[in-house]
Structure formats: C-alpha cells, structure tokens
Specification:
InterPro entries: PxxKW_fam (IPR047766). By secondary structure, the chain is of the alpha+beta class. It has two helices and four strands. The strands form two sheets. Strands 1-2 form a two-stranded antiparallel sheet. A two-stranded antiparallel sheet has the order 3-4.
C-alpha cells in the first residue's frame, strides 16, 4: 500500500488498513552514517531512508546493507600450500 504520512504516494510495506504499523507509526530520520547515500529522500519529517524505516538499526552492528555510498572491503588472504600435499591431490 502507499504511505500517507512521511512519504505520501510511495509504496510502503508497513502501511495497512489501520495506518502505519511501524514503531511509533512513522519512519525515523536518517543517522549521520546515511549522509551521501542515494536512498535518502526528503520526507514530511525531514530526511528519511526510502528503503529502511529505522536507519539507526541498519548501522547498529556494521555497515548498512542498503548503503550506496560505502562498500564492504574484502580481505584476500593468500595461503601457503604444502607442495607435498598438493602433488598428492593432483593425481585424481
């Protein structure tokens, strides 16, 4: 259904027959880490996330999985291979 409070006219999974079913009956404003993200939009209460109704929860543990302005760095660890074991495996 479409939101009628914070982002009127946009699709919202929390909007139902009885209004907004999210905590506090409204989306929450973005946190500092959200600045620069492409998903931040201007709502009736200020800047809000167009995907997550509670941005602070997304950043509580680690990086937000919806963030477009930050990337997760992957660590590449090169392992040393024992040549004796490698030669035994190659003979299948």
């Amino acid at each position: 259904m479409q939101c009628q409070t914070v982002l009127p006219g946009t699709e919202c999974t929390f909007w139902g027959k009885n209004g907004c079913s999210f905590e506090g009956s409204s989306c929450q404003q973005i946190v500092e880490q959200c600045e620069g993200c492409a998903r931040v939009v201007e709502g009736s209460i200020g800047k809000v996330c167009s995907v997550a109704p509670a941005p602070a929860r997304k950043w509580a543990v680690n990086i937000c999985n919806f963030a477009t302005h930050q990337k997760v760095e992957k660590k590449v660890v090169e392992q040393r291979i024992n040549p004796l074991k490698a030669s035994k495996r190659g003979g299948h």
